[in-house]
Amino acid sequence: MNASAALSSLRRFSMRRAVPTLTAALCLLAAGCPNSLARLAYDELRRPRATLDELSAEPAAASAPSAASEEPDAAAAQLVTGERIVVAAEHRDASRAGIEVAKGGGNVVDVAVATAFAVCVANPSSCGIGGGGFLVLYLARERRAVALDYREVAPQAAHRDMFVRGGKVDPNLSRRGGLAVGVPGEVAGLLAAHRAYGKLPLAKVMAPAIRFARDGVAIGAHLAETIAANVAAIRKSPPMATILLHADGRPRAAGERLQQPQLAATLSRIARDR
């Protein structure tokens, strides 16, 4: 998001009722937003009135977001506000997922988890359930902060020379293929946060992400650029090519709908079985 646009939006929002600064930053950080944007939220929302506990006790009463933007990656399209909460993510639909859960009675942790799972669907070029992250939460009543580190970790069998071939390091081995894969933590971290601090049933929190994966979302500029830059590698993986490329091998472009039925099935199973 363009910093000046985000700052302007946050200033306008700070004149209304707002969540505490760090819990607002939680929604941004857990959803994969840059630290700089979370810092904008921290700096701008300096007069909190609704605490996490108040949001846990009553619905967030968010207003309905405006109509979808024709440019899903435009700066103004990423930040969606309601009467009691602001959600900023890499894709407008992911921001809307957070608002939808807030309107359904969720607290800020429900909102953050819903937004994060939605980003995994809408912008897989930057995050996904095969990745990991961090989460920072401020508990207003207890006056303490909680931090979760659920970044990926190296597999148990990893060793110093695993990327060395013929006495030299092969950088490509750490970027593509089985050796490049870390043990993911995204799902474990988001579920741990929801289990400890969420309010709504997990199935309701994950419903927007599941719907986006099943029915599709508009491809944003970042994902479109990533697909175009990696067409050769994608073509070597038929399952990936089926999702990201047209039948004739052309990359899907910004604005086209991205449907991921297998991911929808996986998310549904997570929501059901946790």
How would you portray this structure in words?
The chain has 274 residues and is mainly alpha-helical. Helix content is 47%, strand content 9%. The chain is built from 13 helices and eight strands. The protein has helices at 3-13, 21-30, 35-44, 52-57, 75-78, 92-103, 108-122, 186-197, 202-215, 221-229, 231-235, 238-244, 261-273; strands at 79-81, 86-88, 134-139, 144-149, 164-165, 168-169, 217-218, 257-258. Strands 1-2 form a two-stranded antiparallel ribbon. Strands 3-4 form a two-stranded antiparallel sheet. It is globular. The model is unreliable at 1-77 (pLDDT under 50).
Short structural description:
The protein has helices at residues 3-13, 21-30, 35-44, 52-57, 75-78, 92-103, 108-122, 186-197, 202-215, 221-229, 231-235, 238-244, 261-273, and strands at residues 79-81, 86-88, 134-139, 144-149, 164-165, 168-169, 217-218, 257-258.
